[in-house]
Design goal:
alpha/beta; Metallo-beta-lactamase, Chain A; Rossmann fold; 2 domains; 7-stranded mixed β-sheet; 6-stranded mixed β-sheet; 8 helices; globular; MBL; Xnuc_lig_assoc; Putative mRNA 3-end processing factor
Length: 331
């Protein structure tokens, strides 16, 4: 029902693409990260919660339609619906049903409910297209409550040492997760402009996030003390960071699970918190779908596909253009 083309995942019967990486007439979008939602498509279909983020990233003039989770739409006789993926606000798995066959394209997903992104809901299907960003057995996430406790302890240590606390987190998705879960433990948040813009969109659309302050050249240095400063990865090695001296730099990323990554990244602390499923999360999800065939995209595709094959489940790795943005920005 779905095929993998040089433009993206294509449904010929419905004449639409899922997360295309080249411009197409109709794009069905799993979430608003720019490796999945690209500029140039004639029309976009996504969840209602993703609409404002697509407009933020791609421009207010785009043609976009939003659906509620579970709401069905019919495209040339093909039934399409969105179901929570837990990756970020508005993220979804795309369920496609035609002539008794159901395929699900997961996009990016995580199985732990972070409180703000919506709880992941596995979907029964015949064929499941899964990501594998962290598709190695070494990736096993601690509960997020434990990670947030580590962040609070790190902030306390920094304050006692007279250092400002700067956390690196992706501006759309990870930053909102941090703000939502740390709001009752942090007295003041100061943020980079990229995070501030996404935050304003969240507030305008009713998401329960705490107040933040935009960092500008006029921000008094005394405001940094005791605050949590959140910046996107692109700012980590820039001159913009010098204003916070002396500071301790922490990175929130699943890649921090591997010992030594923080040192090689020249950061002071690494917090292995990811918006993707870990190894067990991937395997549990695949089992819960009941799928008869698995396609594995972006990440450790060969490892996961081979493991599934060795355990009696037909699986095939597929090359796509997903994941490049997140690899570059260490999310």
């Amino acid at each position: 029902m779905l095929t993998f083309t040089d433009k993206g995942i294509y449904c010929a019967a419905g004449d639409f693409y899922i997360d295309p990486w080249k411009p197409v007439p109709r794009a069905v979008i799993t979430h608003a990260h720019s490796d999945h939602a690209r500029w140039g498509n004639q029309h976009y279909l996504c969840t209602k919660d993703s609409v404002p983020f697509l407009r933020l990233r791609l421009g207010k003039e785009i043609s976009v339609q939003g659906l509620a989770y579970g709401e069905e739409i019919y495209l040339n006789g093909v039934t399409v619906s969105f179901h929570p993926a837990g990756h970020m606000i508005g993220s979804a798995q795309v369920k496609v049903t035609y002539k008794g066959q159901t395929w699900v394209a997961s996009g990016d997903y995580k199985v732990e409910n972070d409180g703000i992104s919506g709880a992941f809901e596995p979907q029964k299907c015949h064929v499941f297209i899964t990501e594998s960003t962290f598709g190695l057995p070494i990736y096993h996430w601690k509960p997020q409550a434990s990670i947030f406790s580590d962040i609070r302890n790190w902030m306390n240590e920094n304050e006692q040492a007279g250092k400002n606390s700067v956390l690196v987190a992706y501006s759309l998705g990870k930053a909102q997760r941090l703000l939502y879960n740390l709001q009752h433990h942090v007295s003041r948040f100061l943020v980079h402009g990229a995070i501030f813009n996404a935050h304003e969109v969240c507030l305008q659309n009713g998401w329960p996030l705490p107040p933040v302050e935009l960092i500008t050249p006029e921000t008094p240095k005394e405001n940094y003390k005791g605050s949590l400063i959140i910046a996107p990865p692109s700012a980590a090695d820039s001159a913009w960071m010098k204003r916070f001296n002396p500071y301790s730099l922490g990175v929130c990323s699943g890649w921090m699970q591997v010992r030594g990554n923080a040192r090689r990244s020249n950061v002071d602390a690494g917090f292995p918190i990811s918006d993707h499923a870990d190894w067990r999360g991937l395997l549990d999800t695949i089992k819960q779908t009941g799928a008869e065939k698995i396609f594995v995209t972006h990440g450790f595709t060969s490892v996961l596909a081979r493991y599934l094959q060795e355990n009696g489940l037909p699986a095939e790795e597929v090359k796509t253009a997903y994941g490049s943005e997140e690899e570059e920005t260490t999310t």
